[in-house]
Amino acid sequence: MAEGHARRFVKREEATAEEARKEAMQFIMMQSDKDGCEVKHINDEIGKGVFAEKDYIKGEFILEYDGELISRSEAEKREQTYPIGLGSYLFFFSSYFGKKLCIDATFSKRKGRYVNDAARHEELCNAEIRMLYVNYNPVLALFARRFIHAGEEIRYDYGTTDLPWRSKTESNETENSSQKDEGVWKVRYYDSF
């Protein structure tokens, strides 16, 4: 570096949508989790959760919600036959084209299935799920909604108020009613954010 010319490094506060998409696609194609998250046991009621091991800037890719892409009808059959102790890792959603699908992460070895719920209006909700397409198939990925500090638990809104750990408040029902269609979570498609 030439004398008298100091370079100033500024830490960015937000990832661009294109950078985040490219990074997400890289890890999705490699079928691996990005470094920077750790699965930890929280307690016997909640079970496991995913915690940031590094800071994430707003918009940054965190993890893929990896699993088997199946139809809604197949997912409903599995939901009835899976043993209670196995846990529920079925993510129902509508594709960009309106097809009702599910990603079954029950047997996934990846971390995304352990990310817990928090209502969108809560400060705990620091991530959001977005839909990308790989080889014409939808995939779901988690991105930071805000700056996430190392040590924070990663949480996103599951999109339904009828969960045992959620109180059914009028504000939750009102907020989520525009996002929900017959029990299917409407995931934001990548081009819409």
Give an overview of the whole structure.
The chain is α+β, with helices and mostly antiparallel strands. The protein has one domain (17-187): Beta-clip-like (Beta Complex), CATH 2.170.270. It is 17% helix and 32% strand. The protein has a five-stranded mixed β-sheet with strand order 4-6-5-12-11, with helices on one face. A four-stranded mixed β-sheet has the order 1-2-10-7, with no helix packed on it. A four-stranded mixed β-sheet has the order 3-9-8-13, with helices on one face. The longest helix is centred in the N-terminal third of the chain and has 14 residues, at 17-30. The chain is globular. Mean pLDDT is 83; it is low at 168-193.
Averaged pLDDT: 83
Q: Indicate the CATH class.
A: Mainly Beta
Give the class from helix and strand content and strand pairing: alpha+beta
Instruction: Return the string of H and E elements.
Output: HEEEEHEEEEEEHEEE
What is the strand arrangement across the widest sheet?
4-6-5-12-11
Distinct helical segment count: 3
Q: Judging from the principal axes of the Cα atoms, what is the shape?
A: globular
Largest sheet: 5 strands, mixed
Instruction: Tell how many strands the DSSP assignment holds.
Output: 13
- Poorly predicted tracts of residues: 168-193
